[in-house]
Give the backbone structure.
Amino acid sequence: MMIISERINGLFRSVGKAIDNKDAVRIQELVRRQEEHGATALDINIGPGRGSEGPEAMKWLVSTVQEVTELPLCIDTPDIKTMSAGLETCNNPVIVNSTTAEVGRMAALFPLAKEHDADIICLTMDERGIPNDAESRAEMAMLMMTTAMDYNIMPDRILLDPLVLPVAAAQDQGWKVIEALRMFRMLNDPAPRTVVGLSNVSNGCRERSLINRTYLAMLMGAGLSAAIMDPEDEETMRTLKTAQVLLDQKLYCEDYLRD
Ligand code: THG
C-alpha cells in the first residue's frame, strides 16, 4: 500500500502561509514528520489562487521538499505550466497528479509524463464531468490506458483514480467508487494500480477520521493500491495496518496476531 501524504498542500492555511513566506523550515519539518509517520510518497500542491505565480511557487516547494527527503513526489496541479515547472525541478521519483480523459489534457500530460519518466494518475472524468456510475468510470479508465499506450506509456506507469466524492453531498457515490475499483482490476493483467484522495469522502462532516478509516478499509478490500491521506491520523493508520494483515499484504505479523 502506497501512503501518499496529503499535507504538503497550500489548501491547509499553515502550509499556504509557509509557501507565501518561503518558510522552508516549516515545510521541511512537516515533510520529516509525515515521513516518520509512514508516508511513502508526498502529494505536492501549492493550493488554489496563485495564478501566474504558480510555476515559481511549485519550483520553490519541490526544491524545498526534496532537500529533506528521497520519497517520490506526486505533483498535484491542474495547471500545465505549474506541472511542467514541478517536473523539471523534481529529482526524486515523480508522479503526475493528474490527467483526466479530456482530449486536450491527455495530449499535454502524457508527453510530459513520458519526457520526465513519471508515473501518472488518471482521473476518471472528462469534459462532461465525473460519471455517475462505475461502468462509465471503467470505460474512461480504459480510454486513458489505451491513449497512454499511443504515447508509449505502459499500464504499469498508470494509477487509476475513480474520484472519491464527499459522502455528505453524494451518498450514492461511495458504493459506486468501490464497484469502479473492482472493475478497474479487470482492465489489464496484471491489474492496474489504483489511488484515491481519501479525505474527500469526509469533507463537511464532523467525524472525519472515523469516516476516512472506515472507507479506507472498504476500498482496500476492493483492491486499492494507494491513498492520498494523512499518516499522522493514528487511528486511520492502525486501520490501514490491520487491513494489510487481513488482506495478507503484510508478512511477519506474528506478534500482532497472537494474544
Ligand atoms: N485525487 C487525486 N488527487 C487529489 C485528490 C483526489 N489531490 C487533492 C485531494 N483530492 C486530496 N488531498 C486532500 C487534502 C486535504 C483535504 C482533502 C483532500 C481536506 N482538507 C481540509 C478541508 O478542506 O476541510 C483543509 C482543512 C484545513 O484548512 O486545515 O479535507 O481525489 N488524484
Q: What stands out?
A: Residues 6, 9, 11-13, 43, 76, 97-98, 121, 161, 163-164, 195-197, 199-200, 203, 228 surround (6S)-5,6,7,8-tetrahydrofolate (CB under 6 Å).
